[in-house]
Amino acid sequence: MGGHLNINHLMFLGQGALWTIGLSVIALIGGGIVGFVIALARISPLKSVRIASAVYVQLIQGTPLLVILFLGYFGLAAIGLKVSPLAAAGASLTLYVAAYLGEIWRGCIQSVPKPQWEAAEGLALSRTQRMMKVILPQAIRIATPPTVGFMVQIVKNTSLASVVGFVELMRSGQIVNNSLFEPFAIYAIIAVIYFAMCYPLSLFSQRLERRMGRGRSNLAPA
Amino acid sequence: MQQNPSSDSIVSLRDVQKSFGSLRVLDGVSFAVERGEVLALIGRSGSGKSTALRCIDRFEKVDGGEIVVCGHRVDRPDVDLRALRQDVGIVFQSYNLFPHLTIEQNITLAPCAVKGLAHSQAKDLARKVLAQVGLEEKLHAYPEQLSGGQQQRAAIARSLAMQPKVMLFDEVTSALDPELTAEVLKVIEQLAADGMTMVMVTHEMGFAKGIADRIVFMHRGKVHETGPASILTSPTTPELTQFVGTGNLKS
């Protein structure tokens, strides 16, 4: 590298962008799975489970992602576990995303009108059946727009993984800049790439919300 | 199960107490429903009639007294709720059909999930109960495509599909206009004619008079007056006199 911005630099940035997408997908899937468990735990009939999950959510939401990333990377190393930057970033983002998605989804589950629970109970469905067959299918419809909207946050937040040496879009930009010393131009390119990834998600979320708005009467308590 | 007070009773409440906070909603309520009987619970808003009905299916836990429904001791904490609710069907004021499922799926859900009915059998059953409420052609419609009266009839069909021993109706026509009310009441009348045991909370005095074997008039959390449907035309307490007086003006 060195000299002027050329196709190789752009290829390198493109590779970083792919890792940003990869890390986002890891965070979404990992955070989605853990977040689903958190959402269910938050409305568990067992008080201890409710409290434990609430504490988890509060702890994560009250800690900067940057700190969680450092704890994941250096903390695990300090106790003798050598983890790769990808594993540390993936695990940290999973914990982080789980707390937020868990709360979003809990709200969606609870926004299914209470008479729906009662009707399902009146038909002798078990708690699991009520959840799986009656409540969740309705909650998923409610949850889709805010979940897609939150994916924008995930994509942008993966940029923090650059601090543990994971070469995603932000880190690859820093590396290119170290050889070219054209920070404004390079970070402008990076901003455009982030925008190109996030804007379609935002649009999609808005469209889902509008479509939901039309079908709203469907879910309102009669 | 244990010490059923009256062996013929499908539902029996004895001295049932229930408070919401400091508000005493049920203050020693007792009544029984025999097999095949239609009992109408009437009274002003806030008299406790809906709460009494909901206690039968244990949507409310009682503070004291005894409730026996189809042999289940509903007042006990260890009552088998799923067994109870297979014996008891309940229909609500707001229909509460599942909006993400077709009418057929609404009906087949519980028989398949709870009773393990095969899918093909459940579909036959759905057709049968929908025919009972006159809605065969709505098998594949979604709830939102139906009128209020049709939704309520579908909700009744959904309950019937579980073949309950007793049906509870909680002000099932209160959200409907007179025309739609009539079509729902017709369905309930047919059920009564077929011998279904029913407990209904209703504001339709004319209907109660026509269909109920027995009337329970509730007032301030107590059973204030009870008797055959004729008590609506010749009440003995001033409260019921006043209540049917205002009710007749409406109908």
UniProtKB/TrEMBL annotation, chain A:
The record ties this protein, via InterPro entries, to: AA_ABC_transptr_permease_3TM, ArtM/GltK/GlnP/TcyL/YhdX-like, MetI-like, MetI-like_sf
Do the record's keywords include Zinc? no
Q: Pinpoint the ABC transmembrane type-1 domain residues.
A: 17-205
Give the highest taxon in the source lineage: Bacteria
Q: Which UniProt keywords apply?
A: Cell membrane, Membrane, Transmembrane, Transmembrane helix, Transport
Annotated membrane topology is: Multi-pass membrane protein
Q: Does the keyword Ribosomal protein apply?
A: no
Pfam families hit by this protein? BPD_transp_1
Q: Under which name does UniProt file this protein?
A: Polar amino acid transport system permease protein
Query: From what organism does this protein derive?
Result: Bradyrhizobium ottawaense
